[in-house]
Amino acid sequence: MLAKRIIPCLDIKNGETVKGTNFVNLRSAGDPVELGRAYSEQGADELVYLDITASHEGRKTFTDLVQRVAANINIPFTVGGGINELCDVDRMLNAGADKISINSAAIRRPELIDEIANSFGSQVCVVAIDAKLTEKGWKCYLNGGRLETERGLFEWAKEACDRGAGEILFTSMNHDGVKAGFADEALAQLSDELSIPVIASGGAGKKEHFRDTFINGKSDAALAASVFHFGEISIPELKQYLHSEGINVRI
Amino acid sequence: MKVAIVDYNAGNIYSVVHALKRLGIDPVLTNSAEELSKADRVIFPGQGHARTTMTSLKEHRLDEIIRGLKQPVLGICVGQQLMCRHSEEGDVDCVGIFDVDVKRFCPTRHEEKVPCMGWNDIKNTKTALFSGFEKPEFVYFVHSYYVPTCQWTIAESDYILPYSAALHKDNFYATQFHPEKSGSVGERILKNFLNNNDIEKGL
User: Fold this and answer.
1) Which of B2, B119, B135, B199 is least buried, going by the fewest C-beta atoms within 10 A?
2) Kind of pairing between the strands at B161-169 and B172-175
3) Which of B104, B87, B185 has its CA nearest to residue B143?
4) Domain ranges, residue A117
5) Do B142 and A96 touch (CB under 8 A)?
6) Catalytic residue among B116, B143, B168, B178
7) CA of A73, closest CA in chain B: separation in Å?
8) What is the CATH number of the domain that holds A93?
């Protein structure tokens, strides 16, 4: 049986780690390579580095960072942010990333998923979805949660899967930064409907939330940022706790 | 120590290069028979489709060259699969060091997703490659095809069914998982391959 995965996410701006609450109000949280190595040594199963820099210069800085991460860290890592075309994917994989994640670019041009899967294999292609529960149901958002679309979460996730996505990383904007648990009901529905792994994101506040998303949310992995960056939850303690709750984790 | 990595246009091999550099080794990337034969250790990585990667190998006659190597060789992931007799992926004949065929995972339940991607434990480990292993340990896998358990199996994992996580015959070792991405456990396996004297003796 595959172990349930714990994934710290590092938001990167101009080469530094930051974390937003509800996608705004950024606080700084340390050097990305050092932080990544510390997480790896504590037992993180994977890392996600998300480039939230908009500028062209920032992109170059991020590519350099990806190379440093690849040289220094011995667990798999995913990079996202600013990946719009196949050549961006190629650049990131060449810099040493194991997987890439695409979000707005995939909604704007879904064929990008097919292209990535055909060129590099489904296993490198994580499709990230930011969605919010509205009066019209779960709706997907673009541009870091700033722009609502007509796309429903479940139909888009299914299409992404059919086009060759290797994993779905679902962030609930209702839950993100609130620290009251993951969107387990929607996550369980995704898991039931999709034939690929689902990563839960948004809402981690305490250890029980991880247990709940692995059991009730049927999530394959859980991603969090601030609870790890600011030491509110330590990964070794979290894993011991999950193990004691009968969840298969790598210790 | 001179370590050569077989370079045949088969996916990202830089993670293997980085892993060796972290252990103080500066490997040579090559497809030359001469360079490969001079190395103390040869690593045969691989990512991608079996038929495509096998075609790349044959273009440089690397299939024959690898079969003829006398020093310790470590195949990784698709590298391991190509060291077998045949692969269902693209229905292709492979290098044939291990007399066993590579099969595709057939899920029997919704939870059994393919590719098998993530951390799984390995047990019943044998040979110097796993020297110091006393209990099941987690390593990182990404694959849709597998080698059934057979006489060459030196580590087992279980996903949908029990299968070979690693193989050994004479001077040839191979892992289905990625030691270069398997944290400190993976590092121990690479160190064993590079430094354990019994590896030289094919034990």
Assistant:
1) B135
2) antiparallel
3) B104
4) 5-244
5) no
6) B178
7) 8
8) 3.20.20.70
